[in-house]
Design goal:
alpha/beta; Rossmann fold; two-stranded antiparallel sheet; 7 strands; 29% helix; binds iron/sulfur cluster
Length: 189
């Protein structure tokens, strides 16, 4: 009997802290069973940096704070049948999006960069310059949730989401039976 094809999964971290990727490991011993059903393509998990094939599921942590984030996200949308925003940074910008609240000056981005690199209370930057190497990706005017850049199929909430909600979402998607989250899995109080 021919072997069933494993689902291909790709993951990426954009403007996130990698906490959501660490939460994937919180699936714990269930990962062993899951690995019988899936294989990873482009992902920090295996250090594959480019898509090798079309993927069934793409999982993205973090929002978009620079142009490279946007390119990676668009690449995932092109190469994945289903795209999942994993965690609050991906869903609504999260902590990095706190800079979106800076709007007092004519150039809020410059105000943020000056605070971060020059005038902030705890900054010790002897060059008094904002990093401007051409290799650095262009910083966007604000931090964008993924859904403002491409179509997102599912959001898994939490900071970070629990291993349980990640596992149950992936297991039900793979079985074609996803019907939403059980309240207990997304209750954080
Ligand atoms: Fe990190 Fe939380 Fe953002 Fe995930 S949602 S990338 S854990 S800050």
């Amino acid at each position: 009997m021919p072997e069933l094809r494993k689902a291909r999964i790709a993951t990426a971290s954009l403007a996130g802290c990698f906490g959501c990727h660490m939460a994937i490991l919180d699936i714990d011993e269930r990962l062993i069973g899951l690995m019988g059903l899936v294989e990873f393509d482009r992902s920090p998990v295996n250090d594959i940096k480019k898509f090798t094939k079309r993927c069934d599921i793409g999982i993205i942590e973090g929002g978009c704070c620079n142009e490279e984030n946007v390119h990676v996200l668009q690449d995932f949308r092109r190469n994945c049948d289903v795209l999942i925003a994993l965690g609050q940074c991906a869903i609504m910008g999260g902590l990095p999006a706190m800079r979106n609240a800076v709007m007092h000056s004519e150039n809020p981005l410059l105000e943020c960069l000056e605070e971060a690199y020059i005038s902030g209370r705890f900054i010790r930057n002897t060059t008094h310059q904002i990093p401007n190497d051409p290799a650095l990706p262009l910083v966007l005017d604000k931090v964008y949730p993924l859904s403002e850049v491409v179509k997102i199929d599912y959001n898994i909430p939490g900071c970070a989401p629990t291993g349980d909600v990640i596992y149950s979402t992936l297991a039900s998607l793979l079985a074609g039976k996803f019907r939403g989250f059980e309240r207990e899995l997304i209750k954080f109080d």
